[in-house]
Amino acid sequence: MSLIKTIEEWNEWFIRVGRNDHSLGFVPTMGFLHEGHLSLIRKAKEENDLVAVSIFVNPTQFAPGEDFENYPRDIERDYKLAMAAGADIVFHPDAKEMYGSNSNTVVEVGGEITQKLCGASRPTHFKGVTTVVTILFNIIGPDRAYFGQKDAQQGIIIQKMVRDLHQPVKVVMCPIVREEDGLAMSSRNVYLNTEERKQAICLSEALQLAEEYIASGAEDANRTETLKQIISQHIGRQSLATIDYVQILDGETLEEFACLEPGKTALAALAVRFGNTRLIDNKLLSIS
Ligand code: AMP
Asked: Which residues of the chain have pLDDT under 70?
C-alpha cells in the first residue's frame, strides 16, 4: 500500500525507491480530489520519475468559523484517484504528525501580496498555507512542486517564499481546470445547492466578458475600472451572489494599475459568496 501517514514511513519509502537516483515531483492538496488536482498529478508524472501527493486538510489555514470541520474528505477515493493519475505515493498525515504537540514556528510572507484579495477577508490564511507548504517541502524534499493557477494569489505567494528563503524546489503553475459550463473545479463546489450551482457560472462568464471587451478594441477596454465594472455588473445580476472582491492587478506583483499595457499581464481575480460558500476564480488578461 502506497498510502502512508507518518514521516517515518515516508523516510522508509524514500530509501526503498532510491529517491536520490530519481527526480521527484510533489502535489500538495487538501484532498477530495477532482480533475483540477489530477491534472497537477499528471503534469508531475510527465516531468518526474516519481510523484508524491499529500492529502492534508490543514487546520492552520482556516480561521475560526470557516469550514475546517465540514471540509469534504474521502481518503479512500482520493487514494485510488491519485494512484490512477500517476502518483507513486500518497502522504496523508494527521495534524499531530505535521505540527507535533507544541509547534509554534510560522513562515509568513510579508508585504501587501498576502494582505490583499483573499488576504483581506482571510487575514491568517496565507500564513497557514506558507507554513504548511514549507513543512511539507522539508519532509518530502521534492525537485518540483505543482500548484494550480486556480489559486493564483497562493501561487504568487509561494513563489515569493521559495525565492526569499532559497527553498531548493522549482514551483510549477498549472492551468485552471473547469467544469463543462465554465465553473472552476473546486472541492468546495459540493457545498452549492442546485440554484447556487446554476448561478455560479457567472464567475467564469464575467471574466470571459472582460476578455471579450478587451478583444472588442473599445477605446476604454484597457481601463481596469471599466473591466472591473463589467465583471461586477454581470455577477451582480445573480440573486444569490455576494461579491467579496473583484480586482484587476499586476499578474506578478499584485500591484494596482489604471490601464493595461501591451506586454504586461493583468490578473483579473474575484471571490464571490453563495450563502456560506465562498468561490474564487481568475483570468490572466493582456492587450496587444
Ligand atoms: P486544494 O486541495 O484546494 O488545496 O488544492 C490543491 C492544489 O490543486 C492547489 O495547488 C490548487 O490550486 C490546485 N487546484 C484546485 N482546483 C484546481 C483547478 N480547478 N484547476 C487546477 N488546479 C486546481
From this structure: none
